[in-house]
Amino acid sequence: MFEGSISIDGEVVHDSALVIDSNATSRSVAVQNLRSFGFGNVRQASRMVDGRNMLEFKPFNLVVCDLHFDNESTSGVSLLEELRRENLMPYSTVFVLIASEATYNQVAEAAESALDGYILKPYSANALRDRVKEARQKKRVLRNIFEALEQRDFDLAAQLSLERFESRGLYWLYAARIGAELLLRQKRNEEATRLFEAVVAAKTVPWARIGLARAHFAEGDIGKARRQVEEVLAEDPSNADAYDVLGSVQMEMGELAQARSTFETATQLTPDCILRLQHTGTLGFYSADHARAADLLQRAWSIGKRSRLFDFLSMLLLAFIRYDTGQFSALELAKENLQKALEAHPQSVRLRRFLKITEVLWDAANSRQQHAFRQVREICSDAMRPAFDVEAAMNVLAMSSRMVPVGFPIGEFENIVRRIGRRFSVSRAANQVLLSAALRRPDVDSWLAECLAETSRVAQNGVDLALKENPRRAIEMLLQNGDVTYNSRIIELAGQLLKRHRDKIEDAHRLVDMQGVLARRFCIPSTHIAGIRRSGRSSGGLLLRT
Questions:
Q1: What range defines the domain where residue 25 resides?
Q2: What mean pLDDT is predicted for residues 361-378?
Q3: 29 and 125 part of one domain
Q4: Would you give the distance in Å from CA 501 to the centre of its chain?
């Protein structure tokens, strides 16, 4: 309870604080306590969604958050994890969690990682002050790391974090987590793997073991990633982050049904997590479970319409569902929402494509087929541009496959599928994802299979030529094909052969330059299906490696 003026230090007068608590009495007490500590600006929120929105759009120096909320299924720990993971809250912000004695174990893991402090109910003002003071001390000790992050000098931040970890300096475990995440985001996967392994060896904590699985996934070692994350889940079946990684592994292996079940579990564990709602809803859409998909995606919109975590791909998928189910007034509403989003971000090519596709659906629903077909042809003309990624390919397949039943020429549809297939048919798993977007039509299945067979034949011919001591011809042949199809598997194979046989080729630098140009334009390591583009959860959502 409130105990008078017990100021922490002179700096807090310039700092801002946010109290998130559904109980009006305890929220009021916490606000009064923080003001007595000297905080110059203290704001409050009674709902989790309001607190999340406030934190997304304004930085706070201190957040005091309750663990449980009345009439809400999420928790303070879930909010913290989401904000940290998605880079929506500065590392310099102090986050203190309020928990009861009965729920102590629920915050113990968070206290060792992303959480700055926790306090058990009932607590005194002095106890809260001590927790806040201790957490601010940690921020001071690690200030050089946080300053490097704020200046976007991620190399320096990673280096400073590694130095503190290796010296086992004060707060070394916290610094290790920051460093490992930075290494993953910088694609320094081998270094990230070594750091996660060192943390696991020094102090086994679930976040480090999950991080190790993510690092293995980023390196392409799918088997190790799966074993690591399955071990974590065997010990703790309630770890939502582990389900994220397992779902990504299953997507990579083409196990779409299993991936959907896995993401469904993660969503049930954190029912108000916007990204997980979108991930699970998206897989529901591609699994043709429109009722479940619509429920999840609409919930994501209801919770996250003001959040930067909401991905408007979810609104496009809702538009497809409204078209399929004949809910044309809801389809028009989806179109209006996309129009408003584009007005807010007029430079977004992606949002413009979403709106055009929705307009095609609207035209077809209102018997304006010829206008819709002209729009389809215009949208598909972008299929060989560098910015046209797997997500765009899936959207085009979803759109064009719905136009065939209302009169779009089947020959033109086949040309669209084959053009996309030549570029994105890199594996059976990739084909399964593309096929799901095209309503699993048997003719599309056949055309994509032929594209994959052609890609495999070209790749095998390149390997055979290299084995026959003609690596130059092999690389030239692969680059010529890659320059026509933009197939990342072919372009990357050319790069692998160049690396292996460069010393045997006189003007290898010319081929290196050619391969480099193609790779930079068309070999994107991974893309998202929903939400991942702005997600910091490396390999923790729906990924499709191209």
A1: 10-140
A2: 97
A3: yes
A4: 37
